[in-house]
Amino acid sequence: MTEPTKMLDVTDISLRFGGVKALTDISFHVDEGEIFSLIGPNGAGKTSMLNCISGRYKPQEGSILFDGKDLLSRSINDRAKIGIGRTFQNLALFSHMSVIDNILVGRHHMMKNNFLTGMLYWVGGAQKEEAAARAEIEDIIDFLEIQHVRNEPAGSLSYGLRKRVELARAIAIKPKLILLDEPMAGMNLEEKEDMARYIIELNEQYGITVVMIEHDMGVVVDISHRVAVLDFGQKIAEGLPEEVVEDEQVKTAYLGIDDFSMDDEKEVG
Q1: CATH code for residues 1-83+178-183+209-269
Q2: Is there a contact between 39 and 227 (Cβ–Cβ < 8 Å)?
Q3: Domain positions in the chain
Q4: Which of 40, 224, 240, 255 is least surrounded by Cβ atoms within 10 Å, i.e. has the fewest?
Q5: pLDDT value at position 127?
């Protein structure tokens, strides 16, 4: 049996803000083709960990490798160029811009912008590139079933639709790895089912590896291949989702109860 290929390798990451320890010696890896979930209570350090991977935060200690290459020395834009996409817990859309223009923003780093060749490129290639980009974006719009709002201002949409638009923008960079920060927060049951389906299809049909923060334990168990649990900035468990949610330390430290099981139909806030 072929060993899985590590896409992301996080080793001994520690992050401090002044005297506050946000992360302490966090290590885990994500294999190519996985849906890997980070779970834990509010303030556990989950978003801080995503911010270290995406480049918003720079940890004081540790290393992060992406496809075997150092990630921490790269800028946020460089990380997008090598195939890391990101969505946010709090929506980061341009409210006044149309859905399609918001998605086009996700491709800005892929446009040719060399100063010396810029004028010649604009004459010879820009129109072709823009046409190709728009064709790919139309495919994303079809995939996420947002054709009916493609020309609407993003700020006028329902919360669930805005979540889809932000996912579309992250997909537009053609990521190998996508970081999803609470993609289903604030959604009703039907919207969550749709988002879960999109994430599974991104992973299985498009081959995109996923690292996801999510509080809905039903979703985590249903769609994740592996799970890591953070509490007070430390990793307290890692493994298969059905095993992790039955771990006594996870039940107590993360869920705060002693009788949680994967059969419970409740969300963890």
Answers
A1: 3.40.50.300
A2: yes
A3: 1-83+178-183+209-269
A4: 240
A5: 65
